[in-house]
Amino acid sequence: MSVWVHIDDGAANLSRTASRGDRAEIRTAMIEARGALLSWDAASDERFPDAEIHSPSEASGWLAEIYGEDIAAAIRTADETSLPLPEDAELVDAAHRLAALTWASHWWPAGVYTPALNGPILAAETVLAAHAVAHLLDDEDAVERALHDAVDAPSALTAVPPQLRSDAVVVVDALAALADDHGIALNPAVIPAPEDWALAAGTRTQVGDGIEIGHGTAPVRWADVPPQTVAADSDAQWSLRHVDGVPHLHVSVAAVPGATAELWARFGPHALDIDVPLHGDGSAFTGSTEVAASTALLPLDERTLWVRDPVLAAVPGPAERDEDRDAVREHAVDRLDDPRASLAERAAGE
What is the pLDDT of residues 90-132, one digit of tens each? Predict the structure, then answer.
C-alpha cells in the first residue's frame, strides 16, 4: 500500500488515493498533531491516516514514526510523489487508537440496538492512549486535561463484567500511576448496584392524546445533539392533534437509556416560530405546544422537524448520508465483540 504526497504552497497533504475526497464528519477519526491534522475513516480497518501537514517543520519531530523515513524525507524536500507505506512504523497503531477513542466519545451511535459506551471507562482509555503519543500532540496539556475527565473511572472499571476484569485492572493501575505523576487525585472506586449497568431497550413513545390530524418523522442530525443522547437508530416523530378542540404539536425522539440533555425541536419554517422544548424521561425526549390552526394547512414540504441542542447547532444543516450512518452503525456493532476493540466497547457488548 502506498501514500500520495501532495505539495501545495509549503504545506503537504498525504492520502492513500491520488484524488483526495471529502469524508463525512461522522466517520472521521482525528488527531491534532504538531503541525498537522491526522485523520482516519473510523468505519474502516485502515491503519495509516491521511494527513494535512500545514507546518512540515513542526511535524518533522514525529513524521518518520508514523510514515517512515522515506515519506518524511519527501515532505522535508517538498517532493510530490507516491511512496510505499512502511510495515514497521513505530507510532501509527498508538495514534490510531487515540483517534478511535476520541471518535467514539463524539460519534458512537448509541441507540435502541447499539448499547452506549461507559463514559468514564472511555475517558480512562483515552488518557492512556494520549500519554502514549503525547510528544506528537499539538496540545501540550492533553494528558492532564484527559486525566481530569477520567477521575471517576475507578468505579466504572471495578464494575466491568468478570471476564473483562483482568483488562480493567491493567487500565486502573496505569491510570493511577499516571494520575499520581501529574498530581491528580482519582475518585475512589465505588461498586454500583447491578442495575446501574443495565441498559433498557428503547420503545416507540406515545406522542399525545386527542384526534390526530397529521403526523410524520424526521431524521436527527447527529452533529446537532450531544453524543449518546438521542438514539442514533431512531427518527424523531411529530404529531398534530386536536386536544379539546385546540391544535397541539407533539414531538418525541427515542433517547439513549438514561441520557439527559437540553434539546429543542423546531417545526415548520423559521418564520412560524414553532419551537418545542424537549424533556427527557430516561427513554425519550418529548414535548408539546399549542399551535395555530393554520399549522395543519402547511404544505407537505414545509412540515419539517429539526431537533437540536441550541449550543451545538445555530442553523439547520443537511442530515448525514444514510450510507455513512449505516457504515458507522455496522462498525459499532462489530466492535462490541472484537477482541481488538477498546475495553469500553467490549464492556458495552457484554
Answer: 799 999 999 999 999 999 999 988 999 999 999 999 999 999 9
- Which residue from 327, 325, 259, 222 is spatially nearest to 117, judged by alpha carbons? 259
Instruction: Report the side by side order of strands in the sheet with 236-243.
Output: 211-218, 236-243, 246-254, 284-290, 275-280, 263-267, 305-308
Tell me how far apart the alpha carbons of residues 330 and 336 are, in angstroms, rounded to a whole number. 10
- The residues that bridge with 246 in the sheet, in sequence order, are 243
Give the gyration radius of the chain's Cα atoms. 23
* DSSP secondary structure, 143-206, as one string: HHHHHHHTTTHHHHHHTS-GGGHHHHHHHHHHHHHHHHHTT-PPPPP-PPPGGGG--PPP-PPP
**Beta-carbon neighbour count of residue 152 at 10 Å?**
17
- Contact (Cβ atoms closer than 8 angstroms) between residue 188 and residue 156: no
Write down the domain spans for the chain. Answer: 2-91, 98-197+329-348, 211-319
Predicted TM-score of the model (pTM): 0.89
Asked whether the beta carbons of 115 and 348 are under 8 A apart, the reply is yes
All three cell numbers of 231:
438514539
HSE value, Cβ hemisphere, 13 Å, CA-based, for 197: 18
The helix (H) or strand (E) run that includes residue 11 is: strand 11-15
Q: Where are the beta strands (DSSP E) in 34-148?
A: 36-41, 50-53, 81-84
